[in-house]
Specification:
With 330 residues, the chain is mainly α. It is 46% helix and 9% strand. The strands form 5 sheets. A 3-stranded antiparallel sheet has the order 1-2-3, with no helix packed on it. Strands 4-5 form a two-stranded parallel ribbon. Strands 6-9 form a two-stranded antiparallel ribbon. It starts with a strand and ends with a helix. Pfam families: DDE_3, HTH_Tnp_Tc3_2. It comes from Trichonephila clavipes.
Length: 330
C-alpha cells in the first residue's frame, strides 16, 4: 500500500508498507509523483479480462507489483489479490455473479414514468399500488422514488396562485417569455388555484355565555361599523343585555369595524360595559373554540358544501348541534 506523506512539489520521500515494515519509496515512484502532482489510483468496480491478463503477464516477466500499480493506475492490493488467485487456481476471470435482480422490468419502469407524468399529483404510494394492480409486481414507495429519480422526477410542492382567465394567462406568458427562462414550474398541471382572499364566503357572528347564546348572524357583505351597530349591537347584544343582570360584560376584539366611533356610542347609550382589549394582543376569546369546532364539523360533512346556499344551511345546522354543548367546549 502506498502512502505519500505530503502532496506538493517539495516531497522528497514517501514510504511503502511491505510485510509490516516501512521502506523508503523508490526513486521512480518519486519522479512519477513529482511529474503527476501525486499518485492517482483509478477506481474501478471490476477489471476486464484483458487487463487482468496484462497484469499477470507483466508479473510473470518479473515486474514488481508496485511498478504495475503505477503503470495501470490500480491499487497494489488489487494486483496482489489477482496474483494470489492466479497462483491458487490458475484462473483470473471474474466469477459469475448475478447480484440482486431488479424487482421491476424496463416496461414497468416506463409504466411508472408515464403514469407519474400523466397525473403530476399522484404519490409514490399510490403509484406502487397502481403498479401492483396493473402488473402484479409489488414494490415499495422508495423503489418508485428511485425509478422516477433516474429520469429526474422528484416530489415537488405545487405552486399556488390566483385563478387566471385565458387573457391573464396570455399576458403572463408574453411577459415571462421576455423576462424568464422557460421551465415547468408554472405549467398548469403543477399549479393549485386559490383565491387570494379565500374566495366567496359568509361572514358569521355569534355571542355566547355559559348555558346561553345569541342567534347566529350570517351575512355576505363586508362588516362595517354601521352594519355592526345596526345588526349586531342593536339586534343581538342590546336584547341579550336586557335579559342579563347588571354584571353583564361584553367582550369583542379590536377589529376596525368594532372600534369605529359610531360603534363606541352604542354601548354607552345602552349601558353596555365593554372589556378593555389592548392593541396587538392575542385573541383569547373563548368563542374561538366554538368557531374551530364549527369549521371542523362543516369540513367533515359528506359531501362538503360547494355552493354558498348549502354552506349557509350547513352553518345553521352545525351551530344547532354545537351551541347546546357550549359549556363542554369552552
Amino acid at each position: 500500500m502506498v502512502r505519500i506523506e505530503s502532496h506538493n512539489e517539495s516531497v522528497r520521500e514517501g514510504y511503502i508498507r511491505n510485510g509490516g515494515k516501512e521502506v523508503k519509496l523508490l526513486t521512480s515512484a518519486l519522479k512519477a509523483f513529482q511529474s503527476n502532482k501525486g499518485i492517482v489510483m483509478t477506481q474501478r468496480k471490476h477489471l476486464d479480462d484483458f487487463l487482468r491478463g496484462r497484469i499477470i503477464g507483466r508479473l510473470e516477466c518479473g515486474r514488481t507489483q508496485l511498478e504495475i500499480s503505477e503503470e495501470v493506475g490500480i491499487a497494489q492490493i488489487v494486483i496482489s489479490r489477482l496474483w494470489q488467485r492466479f497462483q491458487d487456481d490458475g484462473n483470473v476471470s471474474r466469477c459469475y455473479s448475478t447480484g440482486r435482480p431488479r424487482v421491476t422490468t424496463p416496461n414497468e419502469d416506463r409504466y411508472l414514468v408515464v403514469t407519474a407524468k400523466t397525473n403530476r399529483r399522484i404519490t409514490a404510494s399510490d403509484l406502487s399500488r397502481q403498479l401492483s394492480s396493473a402488473t402484479g409486481t409489488t414494490v415499495s414507495r422508495q423503489t418508485v422514488c428511485r425509478r422516477l429519480g433516474h429520469i429526474g422526477l422528484y416530489a415537488r410542492r405545487p405552486v399556488r396562485c390566483v385563478p387566471l382567465t385565458a387573457t391573464h394567462c396570455g399576458l403572463r406568458l408574453t411577459w415571462s417569455r421576455e423576462h424568464r427562462v422557460p421551465g415547468t414550474r408554472y405549467h398548469q398541471e403543477n399549479i393549485i388555484e386559490r383565491h387570494r382572499y379565500g374566495g366567496a364566503g359568509w361572514l358569521v357572528w355569534g355571542g355566547i355565555i355559559l348555558d346561553s347564546r345569541t342567534d347566529l348572524h350570517v351575512q355576505s357583505v363586508t362588516m362595517t361599523g354601521h352594519i355592526y351597530r345596526e345588526f349586531i349591537l342593536e339586534q343581538h347584544v342590546r336584547l341579550f343585555r336586557g335579559a342579563m343582570d347588571a354584571e353583564f360584560l361584553f367582550m369583542d376584539d379590536n377589529t376596525r369595524s368594532h372600534r369605529a366611533n359610531i360603534v363606541d356610542e352604542c354601548p354607552q347609550s345602552e349601558d353596555i360595559t365593554r372589556m378593555d382589549w389592548p392593541a396587538y394582543s392575542p385573541d383569547l376569546n373563548p368563542i374561538e373554540h366554538v368557531w374551530d369546532m364549527l369549521g371542523r364539523r362543516i369540513a367533515a360533512r359528506q359531501p362538503p358544501p360547494t355552493i354558498l346556499p348549502d354552506f349557509r344551511r350547513a352553518l345553521f345546522d352545525e351551530s344547532g348541534v354545537i351551541f347546546p354543548k357550549i359549556r363542554l367546549i369552552i
